[in-house]
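Hey all, sorry for the wall of text incoming. These are the two entities for the joint prediction.
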Amino acid sequence: MRAAIDRLELPNPAWASVDNVADLVSFGDATGWPVVLKTPRGGYDGKGVRVINSAEEAAGTEDWFQAMSPLLAEAKVEFTRELSALVARTPDGEARAWPVVHTIQVNGVCDEVIAPALDIPVEVAAAAEDAALRIAGELGVTGVLAVEMFETPGVGAGFLINELAMRPHNTGHWTQDGAVTSQFEQHLRAILNLPLGATDALAPVTVMKNFLGGGNQDLYSAFPLALASEPAAKVHCYGKSVRPGRKIGHVNLIGASTADVDSVRRRATMVANIIRDGRAAADEAPHTFEETA
Amino acid sequence: MRAAIDRLELPNPAWASVDNVADLVSFGDATGWPVVLKTPRGGYDGKGVRVINSAEEAAGTEDWFQAMSPLLAEAKVEFTRELSALVARTPDGEARAWPVVHTIQVNGVCDEVIAPALDIPVEVAAAAEDAALRIAGELGVTGVLAVEMFETPGVGAGFLINELAMRPHNTGHWTQDGAVTSQFEQHLRAILNLPLGATDALAPVTVMKNFLGGGNQDLYSAFPLALASEPAAKVHCYGKSVRPGRKIGHVNLIGASTADVDSVRRRATMVANIIRDGRAAADEAPHTFEETA
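and here's what came out:
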């Protein structure tokens, strides 16, 4: 992935393929510590990623090199926020981009998406969409592609590419209720080589809030309170068994004005917390946005 | 239905329960001809409805009275357009109304819906929503109820009630893509006695255009052209076999401004015509809005 992005002359952080601890130390000494070490396969939701703060810590990565080599070393990027550029492409080469969104990660897991990313310079948003469309085209992607990015004002194009995800993606769930065409409909159109649908946002702002497995085993028992608390919320449950920390659903909520974003985030979080913690927990204490921030 | 509406003191056209041709003639002579004669059960899409223009024509209704009696006679109302007020109600009595819409009937069949009804006086819209909510409450409706109305400026509240439909309804299909909560989601919430969802429109105007069975037997074959012709169109097919005149699907299309309504109608109609007539027919000649008006 990193080599392909370099080939396309799109903005990568400093990176190297490293075969052993010595390689990793050389890379860190050259680019500066900390360094992010990644397994090139099998990673997701922060799994397969370690932050190495020094040459001394690098010695402790011997187990990973034994299990899998080479690994990917990347400079740990200073950024103001994380972005995601979502596009879809058909085998015939038609491609469309949704507006670039702001993604908020907690413990390496996507927690919240604000769509579109507010106050993003138009040239940065355009360059980010263009980068995602170029990647989709040059790599011959069919279907939905998410390009996760670090926003880096003043550095390069204003962003560096973090990760590619060639599938309908958590950062695109907002499109189910916030865009003319959802990423799932678009993915089907794309793989069927049908014309793609419009990707316009339906509202000035849409917030997507994930909920992970928590204290409530019977999600449906919380629906009466959750739905009553916010009639505009759209609740999506995945039908998975509830395990702590597992992604089991998300809430989408649109706002009538970007000035409402704090309120929309708070209300989406409230609904997600009620479903996660159950009716009893919600009866005990009101949930505040700060608890989950 | 007519008796219940009278009991609620909501605006009915003149009506009577008629047992035979003599009753029908008395009603028509009293209220003026033409008269609309309806079977009280089993009617839909214009079936079970006859317009009787004179006492002489009334003699020809003997067959209906033989088959089914009493029948419903109604004054044929002069109106400017048809409206539909859609509401949903839970067993606990929570109820919500979507914006009142303008419905366009062709040969007694709903052909097109413009949501919300443009330029409707706010007091007429409010009274229409209120009437539908009262009917749902007083009759103890669970689920979605459509109240079809004639707009009658200067007469009564500005409308007369035409028909009640206690179900998700053709005049509510626009909500699938044009409202925060679709009538189908709302119907499920209602019958499960869950809190109801917000009924706000997502766009200044949404057009729903039905397509009936026509020359194209394989609807999917027309999708490449239909979807390419209008990327924002949402096509809903019912999976029914294609028979001439049978409702087999509809197209929803939102517009960014009420000033765009003519363009939105034309584009929704174009998509529906392509699917109805097939790719070959669409290649032969462009479809004009006038052809279907």
